[in-house]
Amino acid sequence: MVPNAPWTTGGTEPSELVKAALNGRKFVDEGAAQAAAPTITGDPKKLFSAYQALNTLSAIAARASEKGVTDSEIKRLQAVFSKGLNEVTSYIQNLNTDGMRLTTGTVMASDKSSVGVPKNNYNYVTNKIFSGQVDDEVPAFKGAVSFTMAVKKFGVSTNVTMDLSEMGATSRTMSNVVTFFNDKLAAAGFETQFAVERTVGAERTTTVNGQTVKLPATGDDFALRIRGDSTEALTFSAPAPKPAVYITTAAGNPDPDKNPATDDAVIENTLTKYGPGTAGAPGTKVFSDTLEGTISTVHKTMTGADGSLYVLADVDGTTSSQTIKGDRDVALLKYDSAGKLLYARTLGAADTATGYNMAISNDGQVAIAGSVAGKLSGATNGPINSDSAGTITDSFVTLYNAKGDETWTVRRGGMLEDEATAVAFGQDGVVYVGGRTKSDLPGSATGATAGGYDSYLTGFATDIAGTPKALFTTHFGGENNDTVAGIVVNGTQVLVASKEGSEAMLRSFDVTTSIVTENRTFLNEKEVWVTAPVTYTKAATFTQGATRDLGSLKGGNIAGLTIDNGQLYIGGSTTNGALDVDNQARAASGGSDGFVARMSLDLTDRSLDTLAYYGGTGDDTVTGMAVSNGQAWLVGSAGKDLAGQPTVGEKDGYVAQIEVATGAVTWEQRLTGKDGYATPTSIAVDASGSSALDLFGIPRGKMEFTQSDKIVSATSARAGDTFQVRTRARGALTTIKIAAEDTLDTLADKIRKATGFAAKVEFASSGNNRMLRISPSQTTSTVEILPGKGGTDVLGALGLKAGVVRNTKMDHGQTVSADGKGPIYGFSLDTGLDLTEDAGRKAASAAMTKALSAVRTAYREMADKANGVKATDTSTGPGKTGGTVPTYLTNQIANYQAALNRLTGG
């Protein structure tokens, strides 16, 4: 007979387990098992120890889920839970067993990544152009409609004009227009073609007198498909373009159940493109898309010279297939002018990060800036950054090249909290970063003033080896909380807008750089030492110039700073109707109003001053500003009587276009959204972004068919992130480190070599993505994949699972490992389990239940084997299922049973 499993008897109360853990008792204690039964040895003792530890972890997770547990207790429970989870993980990974094997991960035939690297895709499908029947004329195609398609092939560019007036009397249906396009392209000798993309309308039914009646289907949806060719680069433009306005909004009732204590709001972030509007008519809505649900906050949008739109946002979950490692990360999202997502880039912070601002250079580089707490692999660190295991924030700035690949990241902080809130490109490769800090930053020419946050400005450039370094840092501000709201650069002049206490301040700095050319000896990509000259910015000095105090904002804010046509523009909101700017073109309306001020770049000549307020008698806010050709656009939350327009929802947003020179409002529109609530969060304007291309759903500028194949670009992995592999139980672990230039191909080579080619690494496809698949290369090969250490784990970012991959075979009706070295049991433990959130507590409880089940399975199968029980045994079949169990075996199992009873109080 087989004895009862140890866990079927009574054990120690969960509350006692929790109390013992909080008092510092070890989670894993083989000694306790040995003391309870001196004869207990081998694998059972180790299973007992693992079970005891997991049972305690389960009790801790259960306690954290109980009602009435305070936040302070949950923090203690989280700390001891993490300690115990790390303890049991280390124990299992280093366990020496005889007849079985354990892994902290899962047991798999293959480990296939759930995160991929995009393949080049030479097809482009537009958004829906119209709904109707296949032979209907398309309303958007009526009238004088044309665009130009520049096709570059083998270095020669040819313009193909698609002017629908050339179709004459031919009806402008989807198929006829596509035929017209294709004939023009074929006549020019090109391979690129257009096609009709048709989605059949949904069938509809209704009920009449209890009978289901079929209704005509809705109209079909039609779009265009562009079938490109790898030898042909396509660039689109159209005549007489006008400004396009991009607005992001956060929409949704912030308190649906009217109980501030509950967190029941479901907020949607949307991206909307508008064509030009007028004072009496709303702007044409080109598209409005709901952004991915994991985008929590949009901080900034900007347009590039090529017509692309960049969105900087915080994300709290997987975004565009890029997983995040911590609670919150930063994402840079690039869209084309038709609203198609071209790429997403996450920062890759291990804990939490926020992106506050960004800048775009004339050659397409993008810099983002913000704050980070916890681990950030692959960054160039300052001399006194905050503890990577702590919660104090440091400033960061990341530079991406025009392809969206990370060039470098700097993390730089002081002894206390600081964050970067503004960034700008300067001359000679310098990137300027501004923000606020509670302590002195390293290398500062001036110390931080007493009290709260002070503003800072730092210039960064790369040294001879391409590593970013700080050229200078300076602090400024007053005794109250200060922060930098914007930076713009005019040659050697750097202009900074900051809110110092309640004052709106402008400061000018003159920066002189030192450019040198020096020889550098280095190991090239072919691992050959070479010497070559390198030109770089070696140093920079700054001189503080003029300052200008615009007056108290009285509770308002600065929402934007920019240069347009050689003049400086600053905008925001204020309750001060008498800001210190001459030539008030439009007066304040009362309450909180938006404002836009224009002035000279030297900050001293007031002859160019112009100030325009915008608002109603209620309180109106400004969350974003954009300027183009003397026109300023403001977005924010609207008061009840803003612009005399009727309220369209419970809480409206607004967009307003103001001719700054005269104060005239040339377009104003109230905005609403989900549940009648809308709060605009950012605005960007492309001076040439609205044209006939919008009618066809085609983006302006160069059509991007290719994507970066770098792992650090396509996933949230960072250079320096790691995972571990080994090919036998308790064998030496080999660490695989992600490099900045790694692709799936180079990573596959690293895995093969690290496992002595015991791993077979292939590539699988899912949609438009390539993915890794790891399996044993031989029948008897076994590969264990484990997380990286010290906060550098990259498995989640790659979409790989920790655990053992092995081949299997059938043995007496059982599936067993093909290497013949005993069964493998996976505990599926995740060292990142978090008890501070309800979802995390549920996940932790489920994970402990699963791990405890694995221990029970291992014990049962070990006992079955000891008793001679096989899966296919019957009363008449071979093997021993009845009769008397040998005395030595019965005694051994009884000893094991008694030992666990004593361990658990049974």
Structure description:
This protein is of the alpha+beta class and 906 residues long. 16% of the residues lie in helices and 40% in strands. The protein contains eleven helices and 53 strands. Strands 2-50-49-45-46 form a five-stranded mixed beta sheet, with helices on one face. Strand 17 (295-303) and strand 18 form a beta hairpin. Helix 3 (42-65) runs antiparallel to helix 4 and helix 3 packs antiparallel against helix 10.
Keywords:
5-stranded mixed β-sheet; alpha+beta; 16% helix; 53 strands; 40% strand; 906 residues; globular
Compact description:
The chain is built from 11 helices and 53 strands. The protein is an alpha+beta fold.
Cα-atom radius of gyration: 33 Å
Oligomerization: single chain
Which structural class should the secondary elements be placed in?
alpha+beta
Cross-sheet strand order for the largest sheet: 2-50-49-45-46
Q: Tally the helices.
A: 11
Strand content: 35-45%
Largest sheet: 5 strands, mixed
Map the helices and strands.
Blueprint: H1 14-22, H2 30-36, H3 42-65, H4 71-93, E1 101-103, E2 106-108, E3 111-112, E4 117-118, E5 123-125, E6 130-132, E7 146-153, E8 156-163, H5 174-187, E9 193-199, E10 204-208, E11 211-215, E12 220-227, E13 232-237, E14 242-251, E15 268-274, E16 285-290, E17 295-303, E18 309-315, E19 329-335, E20 341-346, E21 352-360, E22 366-373, E23 380-381, E24 394-400, E25 406-412, E26 418-425, E27 431-437, E28 454-462, E29 468-476, E30 482-490, E31 493-500, E32 503-523, E33 529-552, E34 557-564, E35 567-574, E36 584-586, E37 593-599, E38 610-614, E39 624-628, E40 631-637, E41 653-659, E42 664-671, E43 678-690, H6 693-696, E44 701-702, H7 711-714, E45 722-726, E46 734-737, H8 744-754, E47 759-766, E48 769-776, E49 782-787, H9 795-798, E50 803-806, E51 808-811, E52 814-817, E53 824-826, H10 838-866, H11 887-904
Parallel strand pairs: 1-53, 2-50, 23-25, 36-38
Antiparallel strand pairs: 3-48, 4-48, 5-12, 6-12, 7-8, 7-13, 9-12, 10-11, 13-44, 14-15, 14-43, 15-16, 17-18, 18-19, 19-20, 21-22, 22-24, 24-25, 26-27, 27-28, 28-29, 30-31, 31-32, 32-33, 34-35, 35-37, 37-38, 39-40, 40-41, 41-42, 45-46, 45-49, 47-48, 49-50, 51-52
Helix pairs in contact: 1-3, 2-3, 2-11, 3-4, 3-10, 3-11
